[in-house]
Design brief:
Blueprint (H helix, E strand, L loop, with lengths): L4 E4 L6 H16 L5 E4 L1 H4 L5 E2 L2 E5 L7 E5 L2 H4 L10
Parallel strand pairs: 2-4
Antiparallel strand pairs: 1-5, 2-5, 3-4
Length: 86
């Protein structure tokens, strides 16, 4: 994922609730459901791998209590279009 939305949430909610809120906001703002969320390993703490249909991955480059959410590069790639003969 090269581009995404950075979401901060240091509330006492569970990680699943935090990510679900971020997913809902992303979907409303961008009109597309995200497929990937990167979180600091301490935030994930060995928890869930999929929340609200979004794959969760650890990334040390993301600060604790931050969630980098967006569309995985693999899922946005399209199959090559075939040209029709004239």
């Amino acid at each position: 994922m090269d581009i995404g939305m950075l979401w901060f949430d240091d509330s006492q909610l569970t990680i699943a609730e935090k990510i679900s809120r971020a997913v809902a906001f992303y979907d409303e703002k961008y009109g597309r459901t995200p497929t990937l969320c990167l979180v600091h390993p301490e935030t994930l703490n060995g928890g869930e791998e999929i929340v609200a249909g979004v794959e969760i991955r650890q990334a040390r480059s993301v600060m604790p209590d931050h969630f980098w959410i967006g569309v995985d590069d693999k899922s946005k790639r399209r199959q090559p279009t075939q040209l029709k003969a004239a």
